[in-house]
From TrEMBL:
Belongs to the 'GDXG' lipolytic enzyme family. InterPro entries: AB_hydrolase_3, AB_hydrolase_fold. GO terms for molecular function: hydrolase activity. Residues 2-47 form the Alpha/beta hydrolase fold-3 domain. This is Alpha/beta hydrolase fold-3 domain-containing protein. It comes from the Eukaryota.
Length: 69
C-alpha cells in the first residue's frame, strides 16, 4: 500500500527506538518514501524544550520536509 512520504524522528536515548527503526525499515520495504532523522544523545520529548540544539535542528528539518515535493 502506497502512503504519502513520512518523516520519522528517533531519539537515541529513547527506550523504544528499535520499534521506531523497524517501522522505518518496514515502510521502506513496502516501497514508501521515509525520511529518518536519528538524533544522537537526544532524550524522548526533547522537542518540548526549545533551549536545545536538537529542537532547532528538528524544526528546520520539518520545514524542509514539507517544503520539498
Amino acid at each position: 500500500m502506497k502512503l504519502p512520504k513520512s518523516l520519522v524522528v528517533v531519539a537515541s536515548l529513547d527506550l523504544i527506538q528499535d520499534w521506531q527503526l523497524s517501522y522505518v525499515e518496514g515502510m521502506e520495504r513496502a516501497g514508501n518514501q521515509v525520511k529518518l532523522i536519528f538524533l544522537q544523545d537526544a532524550t524522548i520529548g526533547f522537542y518540548f524544550l526549545r533551549n536545545n540544539q536538537h529542537f532547532h535542528y528538528l524544526m528546520d528539518e520539518i520545514k524542509n520536509f514539507f517544503s520539498t515535493p
